[in-house]
Amino acid sequence: MTSRGSSAERELEAPPSADSPAFEIQTLVRSFLKEHSAYDLLPVSYRLIVFDTRLLVKKALAGLVQNGIVSAPLWSSETHRFAGMLTVSDFVNLIQYYYTHASVEDALQDIEKFEIGHLRDVEKRLGAPAPQLISMHPMASLYDACRLLAESRAHRVPLLDHDPLGTEMIISVITQYRILKFIAVNYKETRSLRRSLAELKIGTYGNIATASLSTPVIRLINIFVEKKISSVPIIDENGVVLNVYETVDVMSIARSGRYNELDIPVGEALEARPKDYPGVHTCTLNDTLYSIFQTIRKQRVYRLIVVDQDKKLVGIVSLSDILGYLVGYQRQ
Q1: CB of 263 within 8 A of CB of 216?
Q2: Facing residues of 51 across strands?
Q3: Which H or E element spans position 200?
Q4: Spatial CA neighbour of 203 closest among 291, 324, 89
Q5: Which residues, 6 or more positions from 45, have their beta carbon under 8 angstroms from its beta carbon?
Q6: Residue of 33, 13, 14 lying closest to 189 (CA atoms)
Q7: Is the per-residue pLDDT at 72 higher than 60?
């Protein structure tokens, strides 16, 4: 397990007391995770998309969309080594940069010749920290994978190995969702999971960034960058949840080159979502960790918006929150 780089905000392991609700859950789940390796998550047959850092961003984006994925590992043909991940955050940074530093015409011209390797320059100009270069071996335990994801605040970790000559090979990429779905399908001690969110205190319930349907899209993009978050609930004047705007939605802007439409209301932008958009997943404080795992087992979920009986916003439970809780990590 490797992490090239340091995290400004570390995670602290907080062992629960023996009489706390977390003790049984974390003890049993940790044991389960240590019994399985990252390799156990890989299907018998799968396809891996890898981009060279010299590839044009425009072509990489088309490749992501064509294959129905939102990220891909990068390879440097110069160093013959793994070079990080191309993620939605890169496109968020790119759009924010062009909005503040160039005209629409310049942006459209630049994007035609912009290589993936240039994205690190954009981060420097924005003052954004360079992403950590994390990876792990396929035979490392799932517990180690969860620890690495929790410490780095990453949503995914590439699996690297070496060929007989010592050259790095990118085997696959495992995500928070894939790990949690593996737990949902294979973890048998489900009795321990039948405790409510209110009792377990999983999620974020204060200082939640929100927006209205009239909020400009660029404002939400700025919030993503400033707060290092991946979604913003859209609420009405009474706090009722209407929708959620996600970093994934930004990819449609980058793909279409609609840099001149960043000032439009988010409500209008949401109308352009594909018809197969799965919608907003909600839950209440009375929902149990078991019921959430059942949802994860059946549907691709990245977060749940916690609402009260009137559908008003209460909090957000992300996959990071769940994963961190299971391995006993808390943010400073």
Answers
A1: yes
A2: 74
A3: helix 197-200
A4: 324
A5: none
A6: 33
A7: yes
Secondary structure (DSSP) of 232-271: EEEE-TT-BEEEEEEHHHHHHHHHHT-GGGTTSBHHHHHT
Q: 176: closest CA among 145, 155, 197?
A: 155
**CA 40/CA 142 separation, integer angstroms:** 9
Q: Which residue has the tokens 């981060």?
A: 123
Mean pLDDT calculated for residue range 201-219? 94
3-state secondary structure (DSSP) of residue 115: strand
Q: Which residue, among 260, 205, 258, has the nearest Cα to 233 in the 3D structure? A: 205
At 41 the pLDDT is 96
SS (H, E, C) 49-98: CCEECCCEHHHHHHHHHHCCCCCEEEEECCCCEEEEEECHHHHHHHHHHH
Q: Tell me the C-alpha distance between 262 and 264, whole Å.
A: 6
Report the share of the chain in percent with pLDDT over 90: 59
Please choose, from the candidates 204, 202, 240, 256, the residue with its C-alpha nearest in 3D space to the C-alpha of residue 91. 256
149 secondary structure, DSSP code: H
